Amino acid sequence: MWDYRIIKSKQKDGSELYSIAEVYFKDDGKPWGFVEADGSFLTWETVEDLEKNIDWFKEAFNKPVFREKEDGTLIERKNK
User: Fold this and answer.
1) Do 79 and 67 contact (CB within 8 A), yes or no?
2) CA-CA distance, 52 to 33, in Å (whole number)?
3) Residue range 19-56, pLDDT digits in tens
4) What top-level branch of life does the organism fall under (predicted)?
């Protein structure tokens, strides 16, 4: 299963950024990986597909935020 989620990542310069990513989950609900956005992230074949995905992005704001650890794994943050 996958879902769009908000990811907080620390940058090399020490700053932190939030992004939307496809997060993949194990059967027990724990994340096992995610896909980082690239240049084609907001590109779809139809306006309807774009709108549907934007709606899914909005749903991510109602779910827990994940923090990316230095090893690339994700942990759930207790607050945004």
Assistant:
1) no
2) 23
3) 888 899 999 989 998 887 665 566 677 788 888 888 98
4) Bacteria
**Alpha-carbon distances, residue 37 vs 17, 20, 23, 52 (angstroms):** 13, 8, 11, 17
Place of tokens 């700053």: 15
Domain total in the chain: 1
Residue range(s) defining the domain that contains residue 8: 2-76
Place of tokens 């650890």: 69
By residue count, the chain amounts to 80
Strand partners, 6: 20
Predicted local confidence at residue 80, as pLDDT: 55
